[in-house]
Design a protein that fits this description.
The chain has a domain of 131 residues. The protein has nine helices and no strands.
C-alpha cells in the first residue's frame, strides 16, 4: 500500500522508506543492490539532517553536503554521457528540492548564528518547514472537506484545539500503519538537548565538512562504478 494506490499524505510511508530498518533490510537481503543501498543511505541522511533531535549542526552540514554532491555528480555524469535526464535521473522536482533544502539549511545556520538581533539562538531544523501548516489544513479538511476562506475563519479555533490536542498527546500510530495520513512530529521534542543546538560551526568548519562530504560522495560513486 506504500506504493500501489499510495496515500500521498501518508507521513509514515515516507518515514519507512528512508528508515534505518529499510536500509538494513536491503543490505541483509539484497546486498547486490548497491544502487538502492547507496540511494537509501544518501536520501535518509538528508532527511535525518533536518529531523534528528540529537546530532550536532556540524554533522548535519556534512550529511546534507554529501547528498548535494552525490546528486550533483549524478547529474554531471548523465549529461557527460548523453543519457536522457528524464530516464536516468531523479525527477527535476526532487533535484530542485534537494538543492533548495541544502542552501536553506546553510542559510538558517548563518541566520541563527550571526544575524539575529538577540544574539545566537538554538536552531531546531525540524521546526522549519510546512509540516505544521499541512497538519492544520488536514485537520480543517476533517471538519469541512471542501472549505473556503469563510469556513476557515469559522473553523480555525476548533482546528487549533484539535491540533493542540494531537501535539499534547503525541502520536500513538504504529510505525507500520498504512494509509495513516499525517503523523505529527514537529513538536516532538522531549529530551532534546537544546544546548547542543546553539553550538554552531564556524565558516571554516562548514567548509571542512563540505570537503569531507564531497570526498565521501565521490567514494560512493567509485564504489558504484
Amino acid at each position: 500500500r506504500d506504493v500501489v494506490k499510495a496515500d500521498k499524505q501518508d507521513d509514515l510511508a515516507a518515514l519507512r522508506l528512508f528508515s534505518a530498518a529499510t536500509l538494513r533490510h536491503i543490505i541483509e537481503h539484497q546486498p547486490e543492490e548497491l544502487g538502492a543501498i547507496v540511494y537509501a543511505f544518501v536520501c535518509g541522511e538528508i532527511c535525518d539532517a533536518w529531523q534528528s533531535r540529537k546530532i550536532s549542526h556540524a554533522e548535519r552540514c556534512r550529511m546534507i553536503f554529501r547528498g548535494f554532491v552525490f546528486f550533483d555528480e549524478w547529474q554531471k555524469f548523465a549529461l557527460k554521457k548523453g543519457y536522457a535526464t528524464n530516464k536516468h535521473l531523479p525527477s527535476r522536482q526532487m533535484l530542485d528540492i534537494i538543492n533548495t533544502t541544502v542552501h536553506n539549511f546553510i542559510a538558517l545556520i548563518i541566520v541563527h548564528r550571526d544575524l539575529l538581533s538577540s544574539g545566537p539562538q538554538p536552531f531546531l531544523p525540524w521546526m522549519h518547514g510546512t509540516e505544521a501548516n499541512e497538519h492544520l489544513l488536514g485537520t480543517l479538511r476533517s471538519i469541512i472537506a471542501d472549505f473556503n476562506y469563510c469556513d476557515f475563519l469559522y473553523a480555525a479555533k476548533k482546528a487549533q484545539i484539535l491540533v493542540q490536542g494531537v501535539y499534547k498527546d503525541g502520536s500513538s500510530t504504529a510505525a507500520n500503519a498504512q494509509a495513516s495520513g499525517y503523523h505529527h512530529t514537529c513538536h516532538v521534542d522531549e529530551g532534546v538537548p537544546i544546548t547542543t543546538h546553539i553550538v554552531f560551526p564556524t565558516d571554516e568548519q562548514i567548509q571542512a565538512e563540505f570537503d569531507a562530504a564531497a570526498e565521501e560522495a565521490e567514494s560512493l560513486w567509485e564504489m558504484l562504478g
